[in-house]
Amino acid sequence: MVTFVNHAPAYMDVANSEWLWLAALPVVLLVLVQAALFMRRAWKTGKEMGLSEEQMKSGIRSGVISAIGPAVAVLVGMLALIATVGGPMAWMRLSVIGSVMFEIPAAEFGVGQLGYSLGDEGITEAAFATAVWTMTLGALGWLLVSGLFTPKMENIRQKVAGGKESLLPVITSAAMLGAFSYLATDEVVEGTPRTMAVVFGGVTMLGLLHIADKHDIQWIREWALGTAMIVGLLAGMVLQLTVGTFW
Question: I need a labelling partner for 159 at 20 to 30 A (CA). Which of 45, 111, 113, 114 fits?
């Protein structure tokens, strides 16, 4: 007869309790309601702008396809978070605005204030609660900034453009390029696999968009971002396993 021994830390009984699942459920439901409201508002605004239903459906398809790559990354990150703070908190944190790059260090910092490290068997309920509050309050700034300052962004954009409507698309595009370039720069300097992942992903994106524009193939445009992400990911993995890191 085989006996399975549970080596999970004691606090995980609380972390995976039904009460925490019930506490996390309203937050996740709120996110789903917000998504539905945004979708309905976007559809209504699209019609007011004169967009056809086909154009709006194409935009939705592009969004869904482009979300596949990031969604897989979030899923993998959620598995890591489940192992440290339990299913309910991982579900709630990554369903709202959380990031694994932030959540795990925040949880580690929280339990560290009481002298523990994530995975220790002796972690108390108080230490776990401290980790949860650290993750929650640490992310509060993002919500406050987006809630308080997002309505002002359009006014700022208009002032930067100096009243010239033709400059607005240029400013918006420049801001997007700057944001993505900032995120990509951190990966480029990390080492060969990550650098090549950025390069392969960028070249794939440019190539697919060139083909789509040259032959006017809409579905290639819709799949371009998701495909570029996957190609970059695979390129980085292959280089890591075969060549390793040069720097």
Answer: 45
